[in-house]
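Predict structure. Chain length: 198.
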Amino acid sequence: MSKRDIVKLSGDGRTTHSAFLAEWMGSVPPIRRRLMDWALKAGWEGEFDPFRLNETASVSALANAAVRARFVALTEYVAYKRKPGRGRPYGLGRCDLWVGDTATGGSYAIEFKYLFASSNGTANTIESRLEAAVNDARAVPGYEAEYRAGCLIIATQSETPDQSIIDRLDRQSAATGRYAFRVGGGRSPAWLLFEMVA
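Prediction complete.
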């Protein structure tokens, strides 16, 4: 990628969340490159960028990046979650990612959604997918982590999106996510939009 590997698009840099996310996101591009380099050396055919595959592969790469950034992480762990319906009882479910900050002792339970954005995708689509992730995070009880968040991962359908698409997704991400980042390290950028849950 010709631009910087990590671009912070929104978020107050003075908050605990912003510092945590910036440190974590800074480790994402090297993990993407490392996975793609490994696949190339192993002779795998096709693309091996986790952010262009699906949500599960993306979350796995994010867990690797968290560990690289000095955090600890668990993916797809069993947790009690509020279920839909009357009275919203708790039942067994899974939380997409738990990340613990080894320096501060803080922790985050994060639920993800994935969007393979088309060249003419709308801001409404981005907002609704992020809201779905936030709603999933609300179902995770507060005792699972100090903080809960929803995150939308956006990848472009094109491996080489033109600058107008990148600019549009930058604007839409900054306007939608409380904390939004564009991350490089792959053939095309990926966007991560975070919203904390009260």
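Summary: Residues 123-138 form the longest helix (16 residues).
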